[in-house]
Amino acid sequence: MDHRGNTAEQREGEQSSEPTEAGEAQRQRLAERPWLSSYASGVPADIDEVTETLVDLLDTSVKRFGDRIALEFFGAETSYSELGEQVARAAEGLRKLGVKPGDRVALVLPNCPQHVVAFYAALRLGATVIEHNPLYTARELRHQFEDHGAHVAIVWDKVYDLVAALPADVMRGRIVSVDITQALPLSKRLALRLPVKRARESRAAMTATPSAKHVLPWERLIGGRKLSKRVVRPTLDDTALLQYTSGTTGAPKGAILTHRNLRANAEQGRAWVPGLSEGGEVFYGVLPLFHAYGMTLCLTFAMSIGARLVLFPKFDLELVLTAAKKSPPTFLPAVPPIYDALSRASSRKGVDLTSVRFAISGAMSLPVSTVTRWEEATGGLLVEGYGMTESSPVALGNPIGPSRRPGTVGVPFPSTEIRVVDPENPTVDRAAGESGELLLRGPQVFQGYWGRPDESREALLEGGWLRTGDIVTVSVDGFVTVIDRVKELIITGGFNVSPSEVEETLLSHPDVESAAVVGLPRDSGGEDVTAAVVMRAGTVFDAGSLRDYCRTRLTAYKVPKRVVQLDELPTSLIGKVLRRKVRDQLVADRKAE
């Protein structure tokens, strides 16, 4: 695809040419955006203005790559033509359930072909998709369903009962049950029915029978005719997705992302990676599609270039290594622990991963040691990017080429601008080289939080600038290094954890008087959720019991890895617990151990 922006070679040529009006404009642009000189060869300064929705994106790929494989799941293959057919049938099924433009359709699914079909089917009707973690507890799901008021929910059969148990005023519409084993090859489906322990365990991990008498199965939803072309299609400025995030503070809230936002981010990613083979790449979907990072890299970016998307319900080292023998990956978006596990296993087991030309790490800091280990194992490049749900999510990236700079999160994507400001007064810019809060602006920046105008105004400043809550420094040539966070979110395994949510859970325990939850850095990158508690007089501290209590109320990644007892928590003059001081104390105690 052609881009209006100039490539690196064109920029160099203009700099050395005789003075012209165009050349002067280009020099001005380089002065304003010095990072352009570090772009990999062929990467444009700006992407074209987006003209196609996500629905158009898939339609185009179905026409261009119809016979090529779109999805692979445990060896079962779905072509782009078959994917388009299934989306049309699922859209008609949803239409018959009453889904109309602007309605919300909740997805509570692991990575599977049905997830991809449901995503695009809802969008085809002009509906809004809401992604949910299928491992959420009833309490966590209820909060989000109360907030968005979905009209239909398409859910993994293992969590059907959990969603069905939501009060009628919370889950008001129909629930569609998805048995992901139906997407397996016939031989594997039959193997799951064998009367042996391993088969029973595998089946129990993948599927369950809902207790309700009248359940609408996915197969019935898509078993009818295809959607009529007379149905109104969405526009670029229609909301495509509500992606829940803790944002910069507080409880999870729905980030409003339009077709334009998500389509632009897919185009930015496409422009960022020179040398992509359209219709020839193999993406591995080891990141959850319900996460903003996995959603953009796999559900939109991969589909936009006609890639084969190999789906995994969760990251399983053996499954990935086995799949690599059949369909060697060429593009692997992941997080540092996955790169570490694969590179070590590749060396130990002699599995060839040299097919991976491109690897983009996000959601947590990428240690230089991980980069070295991965590149020695594969011969490909591993670069770090930066983003947040509110930016669809990718906004910065290390160039995929010799100008990359490990230890930084890279430079702004095409059509993306940055500022560094005083975190106490974001209207005041910091001088070059000084640390400050990072602001972002670009076509991928979200439209605000669902039903939260005050928080939307706090996050989105005048002129479309997004407050990231991250404290950074920027080099003279535009490379960004994250050094701290204004926000106190904990990033663990690539997921955001709100300390307030975990603290509220601990404080609901009758023996806990006060609690502070912080993230302690781990050597492999990311953080461990760590809690400090003060117990009520006369009670006995039991770290294991408190963790078990949290485990019944929180998703596994939110449960504190460690709970420690303190005599008191440091507080401000107004009694607010000072998490930063708690964190510093726990770090010091750990070093002293």
Automatic annotation (TrEMBL):
Signal peptide as annotated in the record: none
Region (Disordered): 1-29
Start-end of Basic and acidic residues biased regions: 1-14
Domain AMP-binding enzyme C-terminal: 501-576
InterPro entries: AMP-bd_C, AMP-bd_C_sf, AMP-binding_CS, AMP-dep_synth/lig_dom, ANL_N_sf, ATP-dep_AMP-bd_enzyme
UniProt domain AMP-dependent synthetase/ligase: residue ranges: 59-450
Single annotated GO MF: ligase activity, forming carbon-sulfur bonds
NCBIfam families: PRK05605.1 (NF004114)
Protein name, UniProt field: Long-chain acyl-CoA synthetase
Lineage: Bacteria, Bacillati, Actinomycetota, Actinomycetes, Micrococcales
